From TrEMBL:
CDD domains listed in its UniProt record: FNR_like_1 (cd06196)
Origin species: Devosia oryziradicis
Domain FAD-binding FR-type: 1-101
Domain of life: Bacteria
Name of protein: FAD-binding FR-type domain-containing protein
InterPro entries: FAD-bd_8, FAD-bd_FR_type, FNR_nucleotide-bd, MRET, OxRdtase_FAD/NAD-bd, Riboflavin_synthase-like_b-brl
Pfam families the record matches: FAD_binding_8, NAD_binding_1
Length: 221
């Protein structure tokens, strides 16, 4: 049975990403990196479910989702862009396999960074970010989600790369085996992957070929 929660606040993150702060139901629990299926409690949308990751910390009084809206087609994320404080969402069971296993390298493609937000915020609050690294690929520099927040996290190393922004001063390299060989080097630690399915599959294969332990590679199954 879905749980109905009210949107308390929306906040712009990038040109197509927003934070949605919503009510936290009593005795509601989730782990950093986990998600739920969400729908909009409006006519024609209540049965349209999409998975979104919690990006708030567990100890916060409200829940937060950080969601990219695809404005070029009339789907759920486009409809969410029209939601504001006072509207309602429907939440379902908590699920997800991306859990923190120890220091390592987090690799994301675009909005695939969202499962890492709560994990890294949780580690920051505990003072446990040392030894972790975040590598994210985006189309353009303006697409980077929470760049300032990640760069300000004490102990977290960040590396940004863009694939469609020739005017940017950031790296302009696709994340593949050659990229990993050049920019990671040490493959004897944990890896966390999230992004388009093809990207994740390619990186899993590349990491194994480069000597990473398969059991030390975490991704959404």
């Amino acid at each position: 049975m879905p749980t109905r929660v009210q949107i308390l606040k929306t906040e712009m993150v990038t040109h197509n990403v927003r934070h949605y702060r919503v009510e936290k139901p009593k005795n509601f629990h989730f782990g950093p990196g986990q998600a739920t299926e969400v729908s909009i409690d409006k006519p024609d949308w209540a049965d349209q479910k999409r998975p979104f990751t919690f990006t708030s910390r567990q100890d916060e009084p409200d829940l937060e989702f950080t969601i990219k809206s695809y404005r070029d087609h009339p789907g759920v994320t486009n409809a969410l862009w029209g939601c504001e404080a006072g509207d309602y969402l429907l939440l379902r069971d908590v699920w997800g396999t991306i859990q923190y296993k120890g220091p390592g390298t987090f690799i994301a493609g675009g909005a695939g960074v969202t499962p890492f937000i709560a994990i890294l915020r949780h580690l920051q609050a505990k003072g446990g970010l040392e030894g972790n690294r975040l590598i994210v690929s985006n189309q353009t520099e303006r697409d980077i989600i929470l760049r300032d927040e990640f760069e300000a996290m004490d102990g977290l190393e960040t590396l940004w790369t863009v694939t469609g922004d020739p005017k940017s001063n950031l790296l302009q390299e696709r994340i593949d085996a050659d990229f990993l060989r050049q920019h990671v080097g040490d493959f004897k630690h944990n890896f966390y992957l999230c992004g388009p399915d093809a990207m994740v599959a390619d990186l899993r294969g590349a990491l194994e070929e480069l000597g990473a332990d398969v059991s030390a590679v975490t991704w959404e199954r």
